[in-house]
Amino acid sequence: QVQLVESGGGLVQAGGSLRLSCTASGGIFSINFMGWYRQAPGKLRELVATITSDGNTNYADSVKGRFAISGDNAKKQVYLQMNSLKPEDTAVYYCRMILIRLGDYWGQGTQVTVSS
């Protein structure tokens, strides 16, 4: 059973930094796509950043220049470095991986709270 587990969330002051990590486990597989999404209270889940197996990245306009996504297919991990955090970045952050021949998987989410 494939599982994705996030870590690294927490409470930080505006202007601070956090680094989220997500690790996949539960079998032998290759990863085609990795991403981070977030959902704030009362809002829809939204894309934050994605990275493909060949290293192409994509960012939401609201985080460009502040967040950086990276991945390690061998370790089955994806990271999100978040700098210059703002109160509006407060949300539950979810990692997502699309695994070759296995499908689409999501983590359980990790809370990020940015105080003003």
Explain this structure to me?
The chain has 116 residues and is mainly beta. It has no helices and eleven strands. It has strands at 3-7, 10-13, 18-25, 31-39, 46-52, 57-59, 67-72, 77-82, 91-99, 103-106, 110-115. Strands 2, 4, 5, 6, 9, 10 and 11 form a seven-stranded mixed beta sheet that branches. A hairpin with a 4-residue loop joins strand 7 and strand 8. The radius of gyration is 14 Å and the shape is globular. 31% of the residues are buried. The model has no long low-confidence stretch (mean pLDDT 96).
Oligomer: single chain
Overall 3D form: globular
Structural class: mainly beta
Number of helices, counting only DSSP H or I runs of 4 residues or more: 0
Q: Count all strands and give the number.
A: 11
Average pLDDT taken over every residue: 96
Largest sheet data: 7 strands, mixed
**Cα end-to-end separation:** 40 Å
String of helices and strands: EEEEEEEEEEE
List low-confidence stretches.
Answer: none
Helix content: under 10%
Strand content: over 45%
The Cα radius of gyration reads 14 Å
Topology:
Elements: E1 3-7, E2 10-13, E3 18-25, E4 31-39, E5 46-52, E6 57-59, E7 67-72, E8 77-82, E9 91-99, E10 103-106, E11 110-115
Parallel strand pairs: 2-11
Antiparallel strand pairs: 1-3, 3-8, 4-5, 4-9, 5-6, 7-8, 9-10, 9-11
Describe what is shown at a glance:
The chain is mainly beta.
Summarize this structure as a short list of keywords or feature phrases.
single chain; 116 residues; mainly beta; seven-stranded mixed beta sheet; four-stranded antiparallel beta sheet; 11 strands
